Amino acid sequence: MQSKNLSAVLNESKSARDYFGSLPDYIQGGVMLHSDRINSEETLHECAESIFREFE
């Protein structure tokens, strides 16, 4: 079984796509840099929140 990544999560979940699309471009870019670590909507949220904290 192939492990999920950001692309798979976005393809499988409308709510994940909506959330990702609502993020500012710089956060989307940061999330995409870690796409291999994102295997669920939960890890997508965690990654985005971590990047937001870096810019606070």
Describe the structure.
The protein has 56 residues and is mostly helical. It has one domain. It has helices at 6-12, 14-22, 25-33, 41-54. α1 crosses α2. The mean pLDDT is 94.
How many strands, what sense, and barrel or not for the largest sheet? none
Question: How many individual helices?
Answer: 4
Q: Tally the structural domains.
A: 1
User: What is the CA-CA span between the terminal residues?
Assistant: 38 Å
Could you say which overall geometry the principal axes of the C-alpha atoms support? globular
Q: Report the β-strand fraction as a percent range.
A: under 5%
The rounded Rg comes to 11 Å
Uncertain parts? none
Averaged pLDDT, please? 94
Secondary-structure content class:
mainly alpha
SSE order, as H and E? HHHH
* Helix share bin: 55-70%
Total count of strands: 0
Q: Would you summarize the structure shown here?
A:
By secondary structure, this protein is mostly helical. The chain contains four helices and no strands. The mean pLDDT is 94.
Write the layout of secondary structure elements.
Elements: H1 6-12, H2 14-22, H3 25-33, H4 41-54
List the defining traits of the structure above.
56 residues, mainly alpha, 4 helices, 0% strand
